[in-house]
Amino acid sequence: MELVYIILYAVITLAVLLGAVTYAILFERKVIGYMQLRPGPNRHGPWGMLQTVADVMKLLMKEDIIPKNADKKVFILAPIIAFVPSFAIFASISWSDNIYGADLNIGLLYFIGISSITTLGVLMGGWSSNNKYSLLGAIRGVAQVISYEIPLVLSVLGVVILVGSLNFRDIVYYQESIGMWLIIPQFLAFVVYMISAIAELNRSPFDLPEAESELVSGYHTEYSGFRFAFFMLAEYVYAYAIAALATTLFLGGWLGPAFLPGIVWFFLKMSVIVFFWFWLRATLPRARVDNLMRFGWKVLIPLALLNIVITSIIKVWMG
Amino acid sequence: MDLGVYSDYIYIVVFILLGVALPVGALTFGRLLRPNNPYDRKLSTYESGIDPVGDAQVRYHVAYYLVALEFVIFDIETVFLYPWALALGELGWVGLNGGLIFIAILALGLAYSWKKKVLQWN
């Protein structure tokens, strides 16, 4: 019986995620459109509502091309390796007080551990394509993602020190008990987290791995049709995962005034973060690769370490 | 069926299986819809429309290896810091001192590689 419930939970999560990604893509294009004083997609359905659906149908009907120089097995495996971890993350997310999946003691560690595997899919895709653009995009991407993973993981440590637990639900209950969101005591960590999250997601202004003006489209240059779609899907699902983590750790998870159910608050907070990324994309030009790497190692990591030192001293001081 | 203590981990297994099933299912289903007409030109490697020159496994900058090495060091550091951060409430001042010394050594290491221009990207 329980197994049926778990399978149902996973299927519903997947369906909601796919729907959310579909409309996130439309929303992104609309937001950027309006910010640039143009309407964005508006042909398919009212307000362009069916644009992404049409895009997915198109991708589904595209020929599946595997270049003859590609390492076929790795080439086929790469989009799956990229997608599965980003989806598996959602097993551990707590949507509200009573809607949650796996209630892991090591929730945060699970999240960080499994999300790193996505990088492997990127590297496999770029390497196996046997294409110069793909390879350069992939190693650039991997260098960027692993460099920014360290400030990301270190910034989250501040929350762990304060709460003393890696369980997502404990973290939210802690914020309920102290009566404020952790963004206030952990503001430095939040800033470091948000900046490294953008680099981790390869989103603009840190979208160097797919800088189309120099690398065609980066590691997925040789991918077409639905294999390409799964790389894109992985990217958006991972974006939601990172937003969900930020919501849980810094923005009080499902906490909010009682006139809306907790899960709605959770989605609203997530949407605000996702909107923030779209906004950045429409506003900022792409960073240069040497600046990007320097910023990660010389600014964000020292800041994250500083945050750990301050937080731990305060924690022990206060008892 | 009661899954007991394992039920949390069953979630993860189910999510991973479903995550594999979606791409496999979609690509299999797509086979019914998509055309399949491969020929030599189409299957050649894309290089802006001209025939690919030389091998694709180009040599890249040594800085990538250095970043990878730095990453391993700091990643392991993080692994050590997590249990410390969890237990800090009980460890008190003694634990705090130990952790701070550990972080200070790492900060020194970071300063050293900074000085040695490992973090310089050109």
Summary?
With 319 residues, chain A is mainly alpha-helical.
What does this 3D model show about the protein?
The complex is a heterodimer of chains A (319) and B (122). Chain A is mainly α. Chain A folds into 2 domains: 1-61; 71-318, no CATH class. Chain A contains 12 helices and no strands. Chain A has helices spanning 2-35, 51-60, 72-88, 107-115, 117-128, 132-163, 168-178, 187-200, 212-215, 225-250, 262-283, 289-318. In chain A, helix 1 packs across helix 10 and helix 6 (132-163) runs parallel beside helix 12 (289-318). The longest helix of chain A has 34 residues, at 2-35. The radius of gyration of chain A is 20 Å and the shape is globular. The mean pLDDT of chain A is 87. With 122 residues, chain B is mostly helical. Chain B has helices at residues 7-33, 40-43, 63-115. The interface between A and B is large, with 81 and 73 residues.
Could you give a short account of the major beta sheet of chain B? none
Q: What letter string, H or E per element, gives the SSE order of chain B?
A: HHH
Alpha plus pi helix count of chain B:
3
Biggest sheet statistics of chain A: none
Broad shape of chain B: flat
Helical proportion of chain A? 55-70%
The radius of gyration over CA of chain B amounts to 25 Å
Mean pLDDT of chain A: 87
Summary tags:
heterodimer; A: 319 residues; mainly alpha; 2 domains; 12 helices; 0% strand; globular; B: mainly alpha; 69% helix
What is the secondary structure topology, with strand pairs?
The complex is a heterodimer of chains A (319) and B (122).
Chain A: H1 2-35, H2 51-60, H3 72-88, H4 107-115, H5 117-128, H6 132-163, H7 168-178, H8 187-200, H9 212-215, H10 225-250, H11 262-283, H12 289-318
Chain B: H1 7-33, H2 40-43, H3 63-115
